User: Fold these one by one.
Assistant:
Number 1:
Amino acid sequence: MKTRDRLRIAMQKSGRLTEPALDLLTRCGLTFRQSRDKLFCFGEGEPVDLLLVRDDDIPGLIAQGVCDLGIVGRNVLNEFQLTGGVDAAPLHEWRPLGFGRCRLSIAVPHDMAYERASDLGGQRVATSYPGLLGDWLRTQGVDTQVVTLAGSVEIAPKLGTADAICDLVQSGGTLVANQLREVEVLLESEAVLAGPQTLPADERGDMIELLLKRLDGVIQVRESRLLLLQTSRSTLEAVTRLLPGGPQPTLLPVAGQPDQLMLQALCAGEVSWRQLEEIKKAGAREMFVLPVEKMLA
Ligand code: ATP
Ligand code: MG
């Protein structure tokens, strides 16, 4: 394989991962010249180009050295590792990216009895992920027939081509619409930055390291929330105990109310309604959860 001096990242041409992947790369300071419906996008500032392809092709392009990195679902990456053939170079998940979240699950028709994996013995399970399903069935020691389908897996039980399915689930709406019940989760998936196990020992390796650093910063900010609230000094300890993880909160006095404090806390990750309700019960008032735009510690 000819060496390249520019980094090449494979990403999905058109689908669920396209917009969030481009958004993430843009936040990392990368800009691209050509329109995104072309196969190739030329990087303007940094020596980083994009190859826009079907998501299933991404792990193979990295394994062959055609691309240095790829943004792809963990489901597709792990399936490739299991079924990509003997010459497939092992790939590495460099970073989870926090979007494209879904799970690979087994679902059965509502009228099928299911309590444990052994209930699948002698049954047919339809899937587009024969590698991941086969691997799971082996660990469970169950003898089940895997029916590989390219798409529309969820209708296989109705068509009579399978007894159960193994497919990606996000909200579960598709399952409900097809009278299916989710019974096992095989894999929790999200988009990941995939690459070879060892980085190239040239400028591309340096560029990847720079990109990883920027990604970490962008992901950290994206997942941070600023929590603002007011509490009296007497409930401060109870409120502080309930705060989601993060650095020590900052306390500010409230003018004209000596027993009151303003509390400001940086939280790593979402703050749920339930957490807010608990904190309120402990004595907090005037609560705000704000996204963080940029952060320089
Ligand atoms: P392509 O034309 O690139 O092959 P595709 O139809 O295989 O596209 P999409 O449906 O766009 O792919 O899904 C891309 C990825 O998004 C999946 O591999 C998975 O990681 C993630 N994803 C998140 N939620 C879902 C979902 N509900 N169904 C399918 N994929 C999902
Ligand atoms: Mg695909």
Number 2:
Amino acid sequence: MKNTKVKALLASTDFLKEIQVSGWVRSFRSNRFIALNDGSTIHNIQCVVDFENTPEALLKRITTGASVKINGTLVESQGKGQTVEVQVTKVTILGDADPEEVKRTILQPKRHTLEFLREQAHLRARTNTFGAIMRVRSALSFAIHQYFQQNGFYYVNTPIITGSDAEGAGEMFRVSTLDEKNIPLTEDGQVDYKQDFFGKETNLTVSGQLEAETYAMGMGQVYTFGPTFRAENSNTSRHLAEFWMIEPEVAFCELDGNMDLAEDFIKSVLKYVMETCPDDIEFLENRLIQEDKSKPQAERSTMTLREKLNFVIDNNFKRVSYTEAIEILRNSKPNKKKKFKYLIEEWGADLQSEHERYLVEKHFECPVILFDYPANIKAFYMRMNEDGKTVRAMDVLFPGIGEIAGGSQREERLEVLQERIKEMGIEEEELWWYLDLRKFGTVPHSGFGLGLERLVLFATGMGNIRDAIPFPRTPLNAEF
Ligand code: 4AD
Ligand code: MG
């Protein structure tokens, strides 16, 4: 007999039907009521065991954490909070879970701290919180592909191991280093790939943008969606050393079109999760309400999770230039001390996350797209404005998160790009292929990158990015 998922059983009205369901025991009450979960939904299904006709030895093995296969009949439930339950005819233990051992794990049914859950990331999928988060993450990933596929974009896979540094920021994980003074050669004078595989310094990619640009310059509209790596200090609640980035790249598109795309895209995928994961979102919303109760009044959120999501979906993102933002920040009194930790002294300074969050949460009270940043704080590939000082950059800022996406219109003019590359001290030969795109049929084009985990953080209301990815990679943390 085939298993039916708990989610399908809970929605079924096929009463008296013989069914089979397999899952993990969340709890076993009064030698009678199994709360069974199979990961298909936040909800458990109640399975009622006929304990008088079940051997004592078998009952003893139905413990929290054990895996079981249950055969029985689906019936209407008399119990509170559930519409259906399973009248068990047969329990098969698939895998035992020793109650004494379970005590040291997060399977123990009680409230655990998120820190403790992180230490047992291999068991997090068995908890309600992580089941809900990861179902939302999965739905978001699907919605992301669906959005681009339905809007005429092609999915391109850009390299994971790369010889270029897209951001020019020097925050890369080394794959191989070639000592240029001591290149290993074979007897016949070729570079010996057994000693240096690529014959070139290579790293894990920090962004697929530059390679995505090459495909946009032929296929028109493309997107990447893959893992990216940054050896930056990720001891914050917003940074990971390994994260998944979505990067659309669009030919014949200027900055305004890029902003329109980012806004429409983000709204669309958030709408999708609200529609397809209502139970998980409701669970996460209640979790936040519980969490808020232990906080001082001033720190509690004024909106529920669903209100926040709807707010983003229903309201226009405010578009503000860097220069306007700096003026606002200079004239602001963010708190009782009336000061930011980092003061914006002059035009040209980079914004810190406290500034970004102030603009979004206190000043505009809605998502903000900041654009036209000073050239000197942004990457070499961004298109120079007529003023010669600012570039056509944009950052999308979200409440509780700060920067959720960043992008730009790209510099499509060969001479201007060469000039910028020189100014930034980058070797032109390193980017010969990138410059070729400007030599043969260059066009205005734009794109952005959005970190999946930051979007998951927003959609789930979680506070730490380590809880938005199954196995977070941060300094001194690669256990799994
Ligand atoms: O702003 P970033 O560095 O932009 C780029 O990499 C561009 N090449 C993107 C493009 O235009 N195609 O990164 C883009 C986004 C950020 O807005 C943030 O959401 C996420 O990637 N991000 C991180 N997420 C988690 N951990 C980190 N260490 C991240 N660094 C960036
Ligand atoms: Mg950025």
